[in-house]
Design goal:
By secondary structure, this protein is of the alpha+beta class. The protein has 3 domains: about 5-290, no CATH class; about 300-415, no CATH class; about 420-480, Arc Repressor Mutant, subunit A (Orthogonal Bundle). It has helices spanning about 55-65, 165-180, 220-240, 285-295, 300-310, 315-325, 330-340, 345-360, 375-385, 390-405, 405-415, 420-435, 435-445, 450-460, 470-480, and strands at about 5-15, 70, 75, 75-80, 90-95, 100-105, 115-125, 130, 145, 150-160, 195-205, 215, 250-255, 260-265, 275, 285. Strands 2-6-7-10-1-11-12-13-14 form a 9-stranded mixed beta sheet, covered by helices on one side. The protein has a 3-stranded antiparallel beta sheet with strand order 5-4-15, with no helix packed on it. Strands 3-16 form a two-stranded antiparallel sheet. It is elongated. The structure holds adenosine-5'-diphosphate, zinc ion and magnesium ion (MG). Adenosine-5'-diphosphate binds near residues 9 and 157.
């Protein structure tokens, strides 16, 4: 039996405001515990929330960039539950009338799902943080830090459109990239300003309805998200294969054990008793405000990709890689082209040699590249004009990378220019023919494609510093017209 996973993500992103969502306390990370607090975010009786306009603006930015419709009216609600890090006894969130709905996100050309639906984006406040370890009394007490209580968040909920763990990781990574490009979120998963919960179920291929899902919490890196989902998909398939039923539950990813463990089942799930927040007005967003915000959006990765494809004739795949896989790749590419290089060559160098080098360094951003775009354009020009062969060009590039010298200087000083000097090449051709009597014989019998092998031998002897076109011509001349009369 073949199974198909079904995945939907819930992504929490902290909005990059200076102050909290309902009070004037600072949002700075790492301040001494309980210093960024006031009666509002501590939930003291009688304190009233006032909505932070900037938080709404950032949430709208995110909504627009993810293709959502911004609702003219949305409503804040109280989500009631008891927890020590929640001083009011409820979290102010949006429930049945969220700020943004019906968006979509495009994944890359290798993804199984090209478009992931965005169900909704709603605004809410963060809770405080329980500290179980690291304090002098930690063996007896849990301490609570309320600095984070009331920090503004958006929650982005996707449709259950994803069909692999890898696509889910890609989706999370693209959302992060967009939020960072927008200035809505700092993308910092270690400090918890971007967090992801993954919902996953499996079903037999061809089945129309979804299976029972579990929710995996605590997957705050792309790699962990993928691993946790791969584990969970396997686990659910095993349960079904052995005749069992998947239990709807929340599971926790343990990266040390490399497995998910049950946290709470549906029976233990909260009934949040949502009701509209009586201390806040409905959030009315005039269309003119939405349009004003829309006009300030930067060029987003998807738009940039389309522009690169249209302006430089790049394929979907190449453009996507430049825009997404290598941070700063598209900027670098555009500068190489602006310096006079052909688009395809520039793209190939970035995807080939530069990416290989970056991988060796364990980096994925162009700021680690010591070769300037202008210097690469110069090398590309030498290769395009046939001054150096492609093999030598790679060699020169390596030296540019390690020494910081320019291509032309390296080629000149080390005599790396390829020679079109016919007599020197002719001598090499002669010795190659003498050493490869078999190939010559085959060629004469009509197997003319051995010429490729012979050219290769000449190039090898010339250490790559030979114009292959000249070598090819001289070889054909030397072999004469014999091939045209096989068996003669
Ligand atoms: P709940 O009622 O448990 O909150 P929702 O329908 O609101 O569930 O969906 C929450 C998240 O779970 C969304 O990201 C959604 O795409 C995803 N989801 C819903 N049903 C499934 C399913 N059967 N398998 C996988 N993911 C699902
Ligand atoms: Zn406060
Ligand atoms: Mg729900």
């Amino acid at each position: 039996m073949r199974y198909e996973p079904v995945i939907g993500l819930e992504i929490h992103a902290q909005l990059l405001t200076a102050t909290k969502i309902f009070c004037g306390c600072a949002t700075t990370f790492g301040a001494p515990p309980n210093t960024n607090v006031c009666p509002v975010c501590l939930g003291l009786p009688g304190a009233l929330p006032v909505l932070n306009r900037r938080a709404v603006e950032l949430a709208i930015r995110a909504g627009l960039a993810l293709g959502c419709r911004i609702q003219a009216r949305s409503i804040f609600a109280r989500k009631n539950y008891f927890y020590p890090d929640l001083p009011k006894g409820y979290q102010i969130s949006q429930y049945d009338q969220p700020l943004a709905v019906e968006g979509r996100l495009e994944l890359g050309p290798d993804a199984r799902t090209r478009y992931v639906g965005i169900t909704r984006i709603h605004m809410e406040e963060d809770a405080g943080k329980s500290l179980h370890h690291g304090l002098p009394d930690s063996d007896r007490y849990t301490a609570v830090d309320f600095n984070r209580a009331g920090v503004p968040l958006i929650e982005i909920v996707t449709e259950p459109d994803l069909r692999s763990a890898a696509d889910a990781a890609e989706c999370f990574s693209r959302v992060r990239e967009i939020l960072v490009a927008l200035g809505v979120n700092d993308g910092n998963m270690e400090e918890g300003s971007l967090r992801c919960d993954a919902n996953v179920s499996v079903r037999r291929v061809g089945e129309a309805t979804f299976g029972t899902k579990t929710e995996v919490k605590n997957v705050n890196s792309f790699r962990f998200l993928q691993k946790a989902l791969e584990y969970e998909i396997e686990r659910q398939i095993d349960v079904l294969e052995s005749g069992g039923r998947v239990v709807q539950e929340t599971r926790l990813w343990d990266s040390d054990l490399g497995e998910t463990t049950s946290m709470r089942t549906k029976e233990e799930a909260h009934d949040y008793r949502y009701f509209p927040e009586p201390d806040l007005q409905p959030l009315d967003v005039p269309q003119a405000w939405v349009e004003a915000i829309r006009s300030t959006l930067p060029e987003l990765p998807e738009e940039r990709k389309q522009r690169l494809m249209a302006a430089h004739g790049l394929s979907d795949y190449d453009a996507d890689l430049l825009v997404r896989l290598i941070t700063g790749g598209a900027d670098y590419f555009e500068r190489v082209v602006a310096a006079g290089a052909q688009a395809k060559a520039a793209s190939n160098w970035i995807q080939g040699e530069i990416r290989r080098r970056l991988k060796e360094l364990g980096r994925d951003d162009m700021s680690a590249v010591p070769v300037t775009p202008e210097a690469l354009a110069e090398l590309i020009d030498l290769a395009e004009r046939g001054v150096v062969s492609s093999t030598v060009a790679k060699d020169v590039f390596d030296r540019m990378w390690t020494t910081g010298r320019r291509a032309k200087a390296i080629v000149d000083e080390e005599g790396l220019a390829q020679t079109g000097d016919t007599s020197a090449i002719a001598a090499l051709v002669e010795s190659v023919l003498a050493e490869n009597a078999d190939a010559v014989e085959q060629y004469r019998k009509g197997k003319t494609n051995v010429i490729g092998f012979l050219v290769g031998q000449v190039m090898k002897k010339g250490k790559g510093r030979i114009d292959p076109k000249v070598a090819n011509q001289l070889l054909r001349d030397a072999l004469g017209g014999a091939a045209s009369s096989p068996g003669a």
